Amino acid sequence: MTEITKTNGKETMCCDTLEVHEELLKVVNETMPEETELYDLAELFKVFGDSTRIRILFVLFEAEVCVCDLANVLNMTQSAISHQLRILKQNKLVKSRRDGKSIFYSLADDHVRTIIAQGREHIEE
Asked: Which residues contact 6 (CB under 8 A, 6 or more apart)?
């Protein structure tokens, strides 16, 4: 059973008795990713924590675009867009290609679209 206690006006949930579930702990310990993988995953999700970067990704869902186009459609400076694109590119969410003097950006792969779609489904529940 779980007991709810109050300390300094804050509710805390705790077990009535101390019971260690060895089999459960064994499964958890065997399936827990390495600390470096957990860190990398947390860093990836931090990238999605900025609405400007999300807006950029939504534009890239529709087309491959240059910084000028992104700045125009999002009503931002090219410098601000470039900064966000650098973060997205470092995290392998977008890729770029040069065409003459222009650099065009696009989604790195369909995983990006899937992550955003699943996030939208989750918040709409």
From this structure: 12
